[in-house]
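Recall that a protein's primary structure is simply its ordered list of amino acids. Everything else, from secondary elements to tertiary packing, is in principle encoded there. The following example makes that idea concrete.
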Amino acid sequence: MNEFLDLDEVQLDIGRRDRCGLPEVIYGEGKSKETILKTFEAFAEKNIDAFATRIDAEKGDFLQQHFAAKGLALRYNQIAKTFRLFNTLEAKPVGKIAVLSAGTSDAPVAEEARETALWTGAEVLFIQDVGVAGPQRFQAKLPLVQDSDVVIVVAGMEGALPSVVGGHVACPVIAVPTSVGYGANFGGLSALLCMLNSCASNVLVVNIDAGFKAGYAAGLIVKGKHKNGGG
């Protein structure tokens, strides 16, 4: 059996869920709305929950109108720029992922991480604006976070929050540097380097503004932990 579909400009990897635990995700930037539509329709025919990132408002409106007219369940998050098409019944969430953002300016990246984590099938706790400039804010939310299987921490500026969180939780912390910050932030490079040099041993780092990568990796960690009813 072929594990891909030839859609001319797209070679759709329909076997990825069986090989890797989650289906292929569509990166929408640079693709036409027609190409994305064709891809989503192919997923729908295979009863695969389709998910795409970097979907701008024009593409999002186009996809919403098309699939809503067909009566299909969908979710478009304009802040996260993610689009999801529900082709199967949602199962009960498995595991818990907490997504924390240092500031509300980090919202697009944090929202992308949240939407991706939800798509993987986990319960997601979403907490915004708990950066280190006001450390009491994270402390107040800490009891809600401590039972998480994974914590995703999104931060720009100096990127200090993941280290603080890492010192308070007994699970992996996935740090996401953002391009938010003034000139010496270097488009997120300063936050990236600070996170890579974290002295908290449970902190892992993804690329700048890569909320999707954090959500996807967190989802796989949760799936592995709770496989066959484990926990």
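The chain has a mean pLDDT of 90. The longest strand covers residues 96-101.
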